[in-house]
Amino acid sequence: MTEIEDVQTNAWRASVERALADGEHFAGAWATSRGKNPTWRALLTSGERSRVLSCDVTAGEIESIVDLVEAAGWDEREAHDLYGLTFPGHSPMRALAAHPDDPAQWMIPVSGEGVHQVAVGPIHAGVIESGHFRFHVIGERILAMDPRLFYKHRGLERAAEGLHTDEALTYAGRACAACSVTNTVAYAHAVESAHALQPDRELRTARTVLLELERLYNHLHDISAICAGVGYAPGAMAFAALKDRAQQVNMRSFGHRFLFDTVRIGGGDAQLDATAAGATLGDLRELRVDSASAWRELEFTSSLQARLDGIGVLGADDARRLGAVGPAARAAGIREDARSTSPRLAYNGFTPASLRAPTGDVASRLRLRAIELESTYDILEELLARPFTSGGTTSVGAGSTLGIGLVESPRGATICAVELDGTRVGRLHLRTGSYANWPSLAHATADNLLPDFPLINKSFELCYACVDR
Amino acid sequence: MYILLRQLATIRRQAHLTRGQPRSLAIRHVDAGSCNGCEHELTSVTNPFHDLQRYGLDIVASPRHADILLITGPITRRMSGPLHTAYQAMPEPRLVAALGDCALGCKILGDPTEIIGSADDMLPVNIRIPGCPPTPDAIAEHILTALSQCG
After folding, report:
1. Residue ranges of chain A with per-residue pLDDT less than 70
2. ipTM value
3. What are phi and psi for residue A399, nearest 5 degrees?
4. Regarding beta strands A49-56 and B95-99, do their DSSP bridges make them parallel or antiparallel, or are they unpaired?
5. How many domains does chain A have?
6. Do A127 and B43 touch (CB under 8 A)?
7. In chain B, how many domains are there?
């Protein structure tokens, strides 16, 4: 159950400031336009606890908090573009979800002798999602990069409003295929927490298995993509094949290569009897042996390794300041992982992965994923040792109208906020790990060579679809 | 590298990959608003299990080099312009393929003011590949069938 604290407009900044001083973390903010006035809410977390600061925005404006929490920058820009809120103190307010014609309205101004722009996208050269990058460069060196996303804005959050909570699940799921399990589990957690429903052991197991299978194929894919970013074809193809095998396991065990439609509110469609659990475990053990030996090969491939060190550095201070999450943050030395604070899932005693020397570069982000693959195999090994049914939930008290789900996706902590009107969705908001990390990616590209951008981009491997929504 | 190449050779052997006839067709992909599922599967078509390139089919970097425009996702308001530009940039004769249920207009999710519609609403579609997302096998099969009908 999430505690909500109502705050007056003029006390907003002070409340956020106090929360941060008390050690709470900013985890996202969203606007709603359900009542007479728009409402502006922020999620604050500390360990397993989370609470929401809520504020009725009477005159359409509310003081910015970006100078206190830089990570709130994108949230404020989005609320400005989609909900018409203004944030005094956030200046210049650059467009994020809106696409004005005038470049000055969305780009960082960069000028000087020899500075020129390189425009890339929205259509890219490979099979890549659509989005635009504007590089400001001198020669080959990047001074700054502006990502312009939301080309694929489908208005999923608005479209989900007014739907029954069961129906709206698909909107969270189809926001992004590669994070589909994470986003639907986060949504289910949000709705269940609002209804004061507690998942039983079977349901916790089933969802954790699905989440780890999603992480498995994504991490294998990301390692393949980093090899491709360097032009190392044997590595790219070997890990592409391993990823495909992981997706074949998904297909055999749960009927879909991306595990679509396996999560439901109050239950699920994922269960394995003893034979099926054993077969899945057998497949995964074979995969583990082959992915470990393929990884050892990468570690000793000097032409690959020589390209990774010192590229696209995101230091710990910057990662913290910009609100980085997931492997990108852990590779910078921030030992945070939502799995270690997930009582609604079966991650008992989980400790976040860490590197001996977290350098925050492409090499660290690659190595961290390889380490996390091992813990994913370990978790699956433990959970698949016994059969499980799809499980269910038990009621634990009175419900509320607002629920929060917080789940670690392959790209980092993903938040789903759901506000309810009875059995219907009043507001659905997804703030995915990718959304949190785009500002960090933009920051990490500065001072690198333009031809290294694809490699840096692949080392973060952020989704566009679950940002654009 | 030896172990990686051996793993790949084993996969190819076990997948019983055959060689295609010598011919060539270039595909340009445009994501018009997809959830990234179709992109993952389209990428998988070139992995060692499927190896679409053995049929002379390749995914190219520019619409100028392409015979087929392959569209994924429902077409969003913001992507309709770039999609149209890509189509205009292609040499004739050209084909249009709609990949996945969204591009085909089935069960499109989203706010109607943000979405133009399906591929059919914008361009003449020649090849239809259903699925959510279509599996790499289905993608390969549909494109190869279309190729054989082209003669």
Report:
1. 1
2. 0.92
3. -90, 180
4. unpaired
5. 3
6. yes
7. 1
Share of chain A above pLDDT 90, in %: 87
Q: Looking at the structure, tell me whether residues A116 and A61 fall in a common domain.
A: no
* CA–CA dist A260, A182 (Å, integer): 11
Smallest Cα distance from A411 to chain B, Å: 15
Disruptive mutation site among A83, A154, A262 for chain B (greatest number of B CBs within 10 Å): A154
Encoded tokens for A428? 């659905």
**What is the pLDDT at residue A167?**
94
pLDDT tens-digit readout, A310-362: 999 999 999 999 999 999 999 999 999 999 999 899 998 899 999 999 999 99
Tell me the pLDDT band of B151, cut-offs 50, 70 and 90.
low
Q: Do A129 and B31 touch (CB under 8 A)?
A: yes
Residue A270 domain-assigned (yes or no): yes
CB pairs under 8 A between A and B: 139
Residue numbers of the domain that contains A186: 157-437+463-468
Least CA distance to A170: which residue of chain B? B109
List, as own/partner pairs, every contact residues A90-94 make where C-beta atoms lie below 8 angstroms and the sequence separation is at least 24, other chains included: A90/A64, A90/A66
The domain that contains A79 carries what CATH number? 3.30.460.80
Predicted TM-score (pTM) of this structure? 0.94
Which chain A residues have a beta carbon less than 8 Å from that of B132?
Answer: 260
Non-local CB neighbours of A227 within 8 Å, separated by 6+ positions:
A233, A234, A235, A236, A239, A298, A304
Query: In the prediction, which pLDDT does B22 show?
Result: 67
Same domain, residue pair A300 and A420: yes
Residues A125 and A177 in one domain: no
